[in-house]
Amino acid sequence: MSDAQFKGVIPPVVIPLDANRQIDLVAFERTINRMIEAGVDGLFFLGSSGEVAFLTDAQRYHVLQEAVAIVGGRVPVLAGIIDMETLRVIDQAKRAEGFGVDGLVATAPFYALGGPREVERHFRVIRENSNLPLFAYDLPVCVHTKLDPTMLVKLGTEGVLQGVKDSSGDDVAFRWLCLQNKDAGHPLQLFTGHEVVVDGAYLSGADGSVPGLANLDPVSYVEQWRAYQAGDWERVRQIQDHLAHLMYIVRNVDATVGFGAGVGAFKTALWQMGVFNTNQMREPVQPLVGKDVETIVSVLKENGLMDAEAPVRA
Amino acid sequence: MSDAQFKGVIPPVVIPLDANRQIDLVAFERTINRMIEAGVDGLFFLGSSGEVAFLTDAQRYHVLQEAVAIVGGRVPVLAGIIDMETLRVIDQAKRAEGFGVDGLVATAPFYALGGPREVERHFRVIRENSNLPLFAYDLPVCVHTKLDPTMLVKLGTEGVLQGVKDSSGDDVAFRWLCLQNKDAGHPLQLFTGHEVVVDGAYLSGADGSVPGLANLDPVSYVEQWRAYQAGDWERVRQIQDHLAHLMYIVRNVDATVGFGAGVGAFKTALWQMGVFNTNQMREPVQPLVGKDVETIVSVLKENGLMDAEAPVRA
Amino acid sequence: MSDAQFKGVIPPVVIPLDANRQIDLVAFERTINRMIEAGVDGLFFLGSSGEVAFLTDAQRYHVLQEAVAIVGGRVPVLAGIIDMETLRVIDQAKRAEGFGVDGLVATAPFYALGGPREVERHFRVIRENSNLPLFAYDLPVCVHTKLDPTMLVKLGTEGVLQGVKDSSGDDVAFRWLCLQNKDAGHPLQLFTGHEVVVDGAYLSGADGSVPGLANLDPVSYVEQWRAYQAGDWERVRQIQDHLAHLMYIVRNVDATVGFGAGVGAFKTALWQMGVFNTNQMREPVQPLVGKDVETIVSVLKENGLMDAEAPVRA
Amino acid sequence: MSDAQFKGVIPPVVIPLDANRQIDLVAFERTINRMIEAGVDGLFFLGSSGEVAFLTDAQRYHVLQEAVAIVGGRVPVLAGIIDMETLRVIDQAKRAEGFGVDGLVATAPFYALGGPREVERHFRVIRENSNLPLFAYDLPVCVHTKLDPTMLVKLGTEGVLQGVKDSSGDDVAFRWLCLQNKDAGHPLQLFTGHEVVVDGAYLSGADGSVPGLANLDPVSYVEQWRAYQAGDWERVRQIQDHLAHLMYIVRNVDATVGFGAGVGAFKTALWQMGVFNTNQMREPVQPLVGKDVETIVSVLKENGLMDAEAPVRA
């Protein structure tokens, strides 16, 4: 197990594209620098928000190559190694390692149905095939398996897992995970991916957060983390209320559902805020247009992320 | 809309049975008094934990008659009016009203499939047929419909609903519900039924909680509520960690799943603690026995709810 | 166990209402007689299509009283005893028995979560409390539990169950149920509720069908049953294709989803065909209007259930 | 659109491994030849049963290279191009094309959530990037999206899709798909993957089947297809009853669930029958052992797939 310790705010990086749906390196550097300058504690590439499912392997490793170069060691870099079953995930792990990342993030196996014994073995076999710190990514909305807290703490204690990114939406299980982890001597570093209720995860004892919304407002998440470290809970919740309001950008998208609405809204917001140059999406997802863009701009203005007088970009 | 305001800790009351599976009135009075003396702010009868699905109508109204008499006005009484579709729920509402309860709690319609327009109309038609404060009970695990925050706040603003008991497990939607309710002038009183993460709900701005686990440890939930009112968040979370540990009683039940494991564990704990005289359940559920009882006793002892030397009751 | 044997086409009867949402006894007699005259082998009242979830107990037994009187012994009458958990179902069973029905139909318990041991015990306890033939109603879309074929055949062999009405949509499990039942000496009478693929159920060895669509076109279902008895599979499938086309009435409803679309379309069709006098629904469901009615009329005309020149009733 | 027409029995080929979990080419040739000699009309490689989710890209294309060589043009070869989202699927398509296969099979996009407009565009974009006949693989149990019959027929009419492999388990939707396809001039070739109820799919008008169980008993599926072509429905259903009995091999596996139980049982049966040399599985799945193997052998003997006196191989 690595001696590395991960904590704090580690945003999953949303990828800017140009009009031809190719990665826009100028905007990529801008968004990375903007988050690092805001004080984030790490960056997570090739997560769900980072389009990992939509990229060919060639595109994935182009992203990773550029990301590692731009970050330049200023903060640790985590890389998603997202694929269906164990051998494919190991293939991704070996390639990601070659690019000099600091940790790997893997989900439970998906597509083929399995049970708990396959899930546990999956993480063990990945561990046997890689030396980097390994995080389990608990994401039942995508992979349709919920990771069991007792299994996770066991894998932490045995040195298989470095930590967990919990995007399960199951706050009861997360509380139990935090308690069991603490009672076992804190082998795992525990992160919540639940950007709307990070404050509740901090109350539960989380070691940090991986909020997609931090692509838009990294300053607030960093300030919230510091308030948590200082024990200023009123400030923590006040910032969370602001961020929960800001997250309204994804609630009223008309055009579609799921990734196209969620990351589609993030990209549209970043475009309107001038961080991205377009709100292009990867096939088969289409960018948001018209009324959806206007609604997002309204939310950004109401929450101070855009100047009230700024025009809607087209 | 009633002028009544509901807030604080309102446990859903678990019902003690005797060896013949009839209500045990001595233990019923004991458990009610124990919670009132601990300082709870109300009591909720005929909720899911209160066996509402398992009782005939005659049994339901026997429970309500005895409950209202025992409580004797010391705290407000809420009554579940749980049935499949609107007309059946109204039948329950009219009967519950006759017993002098202070508020009604209704779920979305269930069994027959419907959509949002039926859900909204359901609550409106109940309101037209009753004068008591009406709470929406958001319980997708039982009724397979999640209530939309925007609809709930609209129904609050229009005087249809007095409040919401949220047992949805969707902490993001609960945060948005709290925010939208606050932005609308706080028409709804919002309660969480999520006993393991009440502290997170309080951070979100909840007006109170409806924790089944408070049947076992009402003192802690009351103390937590008061710490929240005093802004002492470290105390709030510390108590929550204790309660989350205590909830381990339901995690490792071997005999069955669902209600028989959850309320079965509550009844078994109350029996071992001497509050109940048996851990009997209603058909078709069987009481926990053997190893399951021993595990529960261990958890109670580890968390200070039973004396370490106390024998296991048989 | 009763000596009664059930087989053939047993439609679940859809209930006509007048403009005030009260049962329309003239139309009720008309639709019952129309089905009996077409040659159906029984009638099933208070099923899902029969609004059982929407009726108060008083309304349920009004329906049953009138139904038994109108049928007058011409065909066997089955009655749904649909309620949440065991004791409530037994209450319904005892009342239904009083009205002189020939068999009872009960689902797995619902609302409270349970497991297989509660499901099995549920049917056993109902059996201990009633002498009428008892059918298990496999309806996971409403009760969220799938009945296991092995358990069903065991309960048949032991005299607990008379048969099964399978509306599970799981044609593999139904095939296995038929095989296991046959291998056990055919203790159960097995009916499919899957009106669009009754022919496949007959190939699997079903003893009959309970098709909601037979309220519209009982003659075709009866003819299909007789073709099956005669081994004329080409005729069986040809009729099924006609019926599957006719079922398009429920596919394109815009106004809502679920029961309001499904039974709403049946009622609208029966109204347009002159069997019912309105297409009224029970609260909280609203009747279909406008474009939805027109689409249904088009399907009826294309499939020969309405005269091509007939006007749309309003 | 290709002029190729696909029909009849096209088994999804299960892959034999040696003790080191590498492809066992001797057994691979044996199982392929056994199916072709039985008279199958095509073979489908890299489907779910063909371990597509478990193979690295290098392993996938090794399978395909060997498969095309062994088949040697005796029957058409379909190849699964299973990956998460559109661009990754296109990558797989381009590689599969290079190996000389006769058609491609793609699921709806998975992992990232989407809606119907993304699903439709997904198939269109794949079509724009490949010239081979393209089949849609309807597999909600793995990809959590059900393909809409109306959309499928539209894509068939426009030349995007050649056909559908339906493993959705939704026999109502499959009936409607067959009817709509027939009414549109039969642009799609429709296959069922539902090995237990192929007879019902043939009644519905299917153009063929893709039964995993045909790896064990190809002769019966071929004979069933020919009986269907001859209109001998009693023979069709009689064979289906045999095959449904044979499928009991997967019903009582104790060790695990899902793929490890299903394909695990197929491999174990093929091993015991002498077609495969082991029952090895890919990580993280473990081969069945002990009691599970014995149960499978019993079923094989009861259904005539193994000699009654044959010993259990270890």
UniProtKB/TrEMBL annotation, chains A, B, C, D:
GO terms for biological process: N-acetylneuraminate catabolic process. One of its GO terms (molecular function) is N-acetylneuraminate lyase activity. It holds the Pfam family DHDPS. Keywords: Lyase, Schiff base. CDD domains: DHDPS-like. The keyword Lyase applies. The active site is at Y137 (proton donor/acceptor), K165 (schiff-base intermediate with substrate). GO terms for cellular component: cytosol. The keyword Amino-acid biosynthesis does not apply. Pyruvate binds at V210. Belongs to the DapA family. This is Glucose dehydrogenase. It comes from Berryella intestinalis.
